[in-house]
Amino acid sequence: MRVSCWRSLPTCGLQSTLFQLRDLKAVGKKFVHVMYPKKSSALLRDWDLWGPLVLCVSLALMLQGGSADSKEDGGPQFAEVFVIIWFGAVVITLNSKLLGGTISFFQSLCVLGYCVLPLTVAMLVCRLVLLAGSGTVSFIIRLIVVIAMFAWSTLASTAFLADSQPPHRKALVVYPIFLFYFVISWMILTFTPQ
Amino acid sequence: MSAPGGGRSGPAEWGGFEDNMQGGGSAVIDMENMDDTSGSSFEDMGEMHQRMKEEEEEEDGEFLGMKGLQGQLGRQVADQMWQVGKRQASKAFSLYANIDILRPYFDVEPVQVRTRLLESMVPVKMINFPQKIAGELYGPLMLVFTLVAILLHGMKTSDTIIREGTLMGTAIGTCFGYWLGVSSFIYFLAYLCNAQITMVQMLSLLGYGLFGHCITLLVTYNIHFHSLFYIFWLVVGGLSTLRMVAVLVSRTVGHTQRLILCGTLAALHMLFLLYLHFAYHKVVEGILDTLEGPNMPPFQRVARDIPVVSNAVLNTTAKANAMTL
């Protein structure tokens, strides 16, 4: 019976090349670290880009229904969101390195990508609220949720990134992160499904 | 999914195999003897077993034997390939992605940035000897990004909910295009007029000059009075233009040259602020026009008459107006 178990598992020949269960656990652990930001180095030490990719794709997909008429508007919008998130993350990383940061390129990308999680949650909540209606009350709810999640994202990424900077330059690194999440929050808040 | 954890989770599920493995290298032979109908699954088993054993070797470090030597050789080859690949990749990376040339331009303290921001609104009085311009790029770059963010915010308050992506691209293109394009053009003119200024200094000067634009747009996108905008345009825009002009005058010799250079810069800078306030809305409304048809009257000012459009747009407009008031 045990012999036949081998054959029935489709992934048994591929287990060491693809995304493994332990990677999923690592990603999940990092999500928890983002939602409860403490000064731990787990996010920095074992960086990976799976989480940011998943978050970015899901955010871009959720933002896609907001264009007016024809189907072709959906295409560029996905690409624009994707490009803006990754380009913004790269710019912030370069900026923090140029200011004398000790963090590596991919570590910084990893942190910034993972800290998009609160905003993805906000997008989900906004979509649900918009299903209920799109009046003033729903706008106020969405505004509060987006502002709260924006603050959470900024604080979370600051908690991880600011330590790697010289102490007197923290403000110089935090400001572009603030702008980056502001732009993403703006995209989420002004989303209206048509 | 028990297979991925098979080699690592220990004997929990593979107790049967465990007994076979204790024979050392003969475990595979034992598997050969097991009753199985299809040959391919035997090969799979053998492969999986070998992989499991290699993983066990890695972890325990105690198991030696014929299989151990093969595994070690394979590992060494893989290791070498990895090292070579890594070396090549890091060489290419350090060649093409050398950001260290930009490092001196980002060597700045927050206090310095704040001082320079405030100074960019104060015209210098002494134009007889060249004024110092800090060749720094952090402040200007952040100001350009802030201007982009303010433009996007302005689009939100004017209810442009359609085609966010294109508008964002337009905003980024406009701001960076202005900063880089006008800096290059003025640098070229400065070269013609024999002014003593380098490209980085020009970028820095113009970048800090955008601080006035940021303040003006931030205020007037939220408080929609055109007289207020004109006052801000003259005062705030004028102050930052005067500052830039004074610095350039101090670095240029000759009346004609000063006139050309400073006249061009002043005109471009002030007109850009006008453009951002008025024509940018028009660009946005142009996009809306192409999508909704010729219903929208052109160039709507402060209190927009809502034309006959869909209810969704009406509702969104109403609620956004309620929020801004």
From TrEMBL, chain A:
Signal peptide: none annotated. GO terms for biological process: endoplasmic reticulum to Golgi vesicle-mediated transport. Keywords: Membrane, Transmembrane, Transmembrane helix. InterPro entries: Yip1/4-like (IPR045231), Yip1_dom (IPR006977). GO terms for cellular component: Golgi membrane. Its main location: Golgi. The keyword Nucleus does not apply. Residues 36-187 form the Yip1 domain. The chain crosses the membrane at residues 47-66, 78-99, 111-133, 139-161, 173-192. It is a multi-pass membrane protein. Belongs to the YIP1 family. This is Protein YIPF. It comes from Gallus gallus. The gene is YIPF6.
From TrEMBL, chain B:
Involved in the maintenance of the Golgi structure. May play a role in hematopoiesis. Residues 1-28 are annotated as: Disordered. One of its GO terms (cellular component) is plasma membrane. The keyword Cytoplasm applies. Belongs to the YIP1 family. One of its GO terms (biological process) is cell differentiation. This is Protein YIPF3. It comes from the Eukaryota. Keywords: Cell membrane, Cytoplasm, Differentiation, Glycoprotein, Golgi apparatus, Membrane, Transmembrane, Transmembrane helix. Its main location: membrane. It is found in: Cell membrane; Cytoplasm; Golgi apparatus, cis-Golgi network membrane. It comes from Gallus gallus (Chicken). The keyword Zinc-finger does not apply.
